[in-house]
């Protein structure tokens, strides 16, 4: 995704996430160990669930500040059934995915 290469740019372009799983910044000891071969685990996850009817965007943030964006498909919802005509008109109908359904809006 063009221009979504840091936490700041993601929040700037997409706004506040639906869910922000933020345990807090890694400690100085964790982030400044100096070992280039040490693992760089994720410490924070942002979830954008309102960008699309078909998919969610998940952003994993590593201790180094690197981000990884993942698009996940939303589960398909089936329309409820009822014999009452008034209820039938009020119930949502099943939507057919479009060609651009996988891309966030």
Shape field? globular
- What is the oligomeric state here? single chain
* Rg on CA atoms, Å: 19 Å
Query: What is the count of DSSP helices, taking H or I runs of 4+ residues?
Result: 3
Distance between the termini: 13 Å
> Would you list the SSEs in sequence order as H and E?
HEHEEEH
**Poorly predicted regions:** none
How many strands, what sense, and barrel or not for the largest sheet? 4 strands, antiparallel
Helical fraction:
10-25%
Summing up helix and strand content along with how strands pair, one would put the structural category as alpha+beta
Mean pLDDT over all positions: 74
Strand content: 15-25%
Give the strand order, joined by hyphens, for the main sheet: 1-2-3-4
> What is the number of E strands?
4
Care to describe what's here?
A four-stranded antiparallel sheet has the order 1-2-3-4, with no helix packed on it. The chain has a domain at 7-24 and 39-90. It is 17% helix and 24% strand. It has helices spanning 7-14, 28-31, 85-90, and strands spanning 19-21, 42-48, 55-62, 67-73. The mean pLDDT is 74. The longest helix has 8 residues, at 7-14. By secondary structure, the chain is an alpha+beta fold. It is globular, with a radius of gyration of 19 Å. The protein has three helices and four strands; from the N terminus they run αβαβββα.
């Amino acid at each position: 995704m063009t221009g979504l290469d840091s936490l700041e740019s993601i929040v700037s372009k997409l706004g506040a996430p639906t869910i922000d799983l933020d345990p807090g910044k890694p400690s100085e000891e964790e982030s400044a160990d100096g070992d280039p071969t040490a693992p760089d685990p994720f410490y924070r996850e942002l979830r954008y669930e309102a960008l699309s009817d078909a998919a969610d965007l998940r952003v994993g943030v590593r201790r180094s500040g690197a981000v990884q964006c993942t698009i996940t498909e939303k589960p398909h919802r089936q329309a409820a059934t009822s014999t009452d005509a008034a209820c039938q008109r009020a119930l949502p109908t099943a939507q057919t995915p479009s060609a651009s359904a996988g891309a966030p809006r």
